[in-house]
Write a structure and sequence with these properties.
heterodimer, B: mainly alpha, 0% strand
Chain lengths: 199, 195
């Protein structure tokens, strides 16, 4: 097991959003403010790690034919737990993330990691994989929400950087989500080409 | 039954709050199967079908959960209903309408993890829609998905011949295109029914 390699994969070379292009819906929808981004990122990381461990433990018991249904039930259970915990302890974040918390169930990142990693590896490796991929996802959310909050409302984590009148509120709208993510992925492709060209 | 309310819901689901371009539900299939026009149309119709059925089926399920005071089991119950529904639809179509089954192909099972389907069911509960309103919201939400994916596929077919900067090739330029489409759909936000 190689923690460093897995971390590098999660953050850069196999980043769930920028390279694997998974979990688009939540990435686009909730990255309007930094607090939303962090809330979503941490929730997904926790659910991803727990479901990875659990599915890895059960990997020899779950029959091949109904595995997807089993994964979904496991994931839905953890999502419900996180949903209830958020509502109890962070009602503001639960309010602003709204329907996207229960929708983590169908976030392709979690199902994809369950299918491609957790079902083939030991629990410890699966846990590390969940944490690394989760950090990669959170990082993208953080960058995107920072860009969109700064340009869209002139604030950063709630602190006004420049007056809101000079901001481009379009960036905080759905349009801005598509454009920001498009530019980030383009940047990633450009960087990949640079790295390959340098070798 | 008030027809105007239903019309209002339909208009909202198709244009004003389009599931993909305004609410970000169902982006994965939107990006994944929009490279060719015919697959996009097939996916769109499959989604209308499943979303309408899911909305209809989850309404009594939700009533039952409320009665048993198991409201917190909503997410688990709904995703199970949707997964089972998709499985049954697949089996039924295979037997009864093989031509349609062939046309939809791999897209049917993929619908289980389409967040638009789970999204519409959850939104129905959140908005306190009654049975008919739920079904209308489900079907028209699917119609909005069809509209967006067909428009997007037709743009994407032409995009193949375009010459964007190297870094933007493939996925990024598709996202930018979707962004511009979202910008167009923002124009519908001024639409309100006067009565």
């Amino acid at each position: 097991m190689n923690v460093g390699k897995q971390l590098k994969e999660g953050l850069l070379t196999q980043n769930p959003v920028l390279i694997q292009l998974l979990g688009m819906c939540s990435t686009l929808a909730i990255t309007t403010t930094i607090s939303n981004g962090i809330g979503m990122g941490v929730s997904v990381t926790i659910i991803l790690t727990l479901s990875n461990i659990f599915i890895s433990l059960l990997r020899k018991i779950i029959p091949e034919q109904v595995r997807i249904a089993c994964y979904i039930v496991v994931i839905a259970g953890f999502v419900t737990m996180v949903d209830l915990l958020l509502q109890a302890f962070f009602p503001d974040i639960a309010e602003s993330l709204g329907v996207f918390i229960p929708l983590i169930v169908v976030n392709c990142i979690i199902l994809a990691r369950a299918e491609s990693f957790a079902s083939k590896n030991k629990p410890v490796a699966a846990a590390v994989d969940g944490i690394c991929q989760g950090i990669g996802y959170t990082l993208v959310l953080l960058v995107m929400s920072a860009i969109r909050e700064l340009l869209g409302s002139g604030a950063l984590a709630g602190n006004q950087i420049f007056p809101a009148e000079y901001s481009a509120s379009l960036i905080a709208q759905p349009v801005g989500g598509f454009l920001t993510l498009g530019c980030l992925i383009a940047l990633m492709q450009w960087a990949q080409r640079k790295v390959k060209g340098g070798k | 039954m008030q027809w105007t309310t239903l019309f209002d819901i339909a208009l909202g689901a198709i244009l004003i709050n389009n599931f993909i371009l305004a609410q970000f539900l169902g982006i994965c299939p939107f990006m994944g199967v929009s490279k060719k026009m015919d697959t996009a149309v097939g996916m769109g119709f499959a989604v209308i079908f499943v979303m309408g059925l899911a909305a209809a089926l989850c309404y009594p399920v939700n009533l039952l959960l409320d009665k048993l005071e198991l409201g917190y089991m909503q997410t688990v119950a709904f995703i199970l209903v949707i997964a089972a529904l998709v499985q049954f639809v697949e089996m039924f179509l295979k037997k009864a309408v093989p031509t349609l089954y062939q046309a939809l192909g791999v897209y049917l099972p993929l619908i289980t993890t389409n967040c638009a389907v789970l999204g519409v069911v959850l939104l129905n509960v959140q908005n306190d829609y009654n049975f008919i309103e739920s079904v209308v919201y489900g079907i028209t939400g699917g119609a909005g998905f069809l509209l967006a994916i067909v428009l997007f596929a037709s743009i994407r077919e032409r995009l193949e011949f375009a010459d964007p900067p190297k870094a933007f090739r493939g996925f990024p330029i598709a996202l930018v295109t979707a962004g511009l489409m979202a910008l167009c759909f923002m124009g519908f936000q001024g639409l309100r029914i006067p009565w």
